[in-house]
Design a protein that fits this description.
This protein is an alpha/beta fold. It has a single domain, classed as Glutaredoxin (3-Layer(aba) Sandwich), CATH 3.40.30. A 5-stranded mixed sheet has the order 5-4-3-8-9. A two-stranded antiparallel ribbon has the order 1-2. Strands 6-7 form a two-stranded antiparallel sheet. A hairpin with a 5-residue loop joins β1 and β2. The two termini are 23 Å apart.
Length: 179
């Protein structure tokens, strides 16, 4: 059985650049807006996944709270630019969406990778859901990786938790770093 390496909490987040919807590119782990000092990276399966569409649309409801807490947000999949353009019709989000995540980048992030069940599903291997929160030092502060679309962080709990973590009065360290 092949071993797959996972990113460890407290490690520097890898430098991965992906193309953005509407042009340009973004480094996944670096906040794009100058008001933010943290970055949340949400990896989703792609246009073919209705649960991903629902999750991203729900995430939009938390975008303001994330911004208030200086947490920038980006979502990314392995979809092509054309697939993303088709998906944008179903997405009602204002945060940036990136595309073209390569298999090498998926592996670098420690994501589970699935093969399409049929050509109707999609035409490429794709990442299963992952959620990463990168702190102001560029280190992985929160990580959640799943091998299927049915297991994802509850958004209210996640955003409330980030609000608590970012409150300096709580002095909350990165958890799960013991090796």
């Amino acid at each position: 059985m092949a071993m797959q390496s996972k990113l460890a909490a407290g490690e520097p987040f890898p430098q991965i650049t992906v193309p953005l919807s509407g042009g340009g590119s973004a480094e996944l782990g670096r906040p794009a807006c100058e008001e933010a000092d943290w970055r949340m990276v949400v990896v989703y399966r792609g246009k073919h996944c209705p649960l991903c569409t629902k999750y991203l649309n729900q995430l939009e409801k938390y975008w303001d709270r994330l911004c208030l807490n200086r947490v920038d947000l980006i979502a990314v999949s392995a979809d092509s630019e054309e697939q993303l353009k088709g998906h944008l019709e179903k997405l009602q989000v204002s945060f940036p969406i990136a595309y073209g995540l390569s298999e090498a980048q998926m592996k670098e992030l420690g994501l589970y990778i699935s093969l399409p069940r049929s050509a109707e599903e999609t035409d490429h291997n794709f990442a299963e859901p992952g959620l990463f929160v990168v702190n102001q030092e560029g280190k992985l502060h929160v990580v959640d990786i799943s091998n299927n679309p049915f297991v994802r962080p509850d958004l209210e709990q996640l955003v409330s938790g980030l609000e608590w973590i970012k409150n300096p009065d709580n002095n909350y360290p990165i958890r799960g770093t013991f090796r």
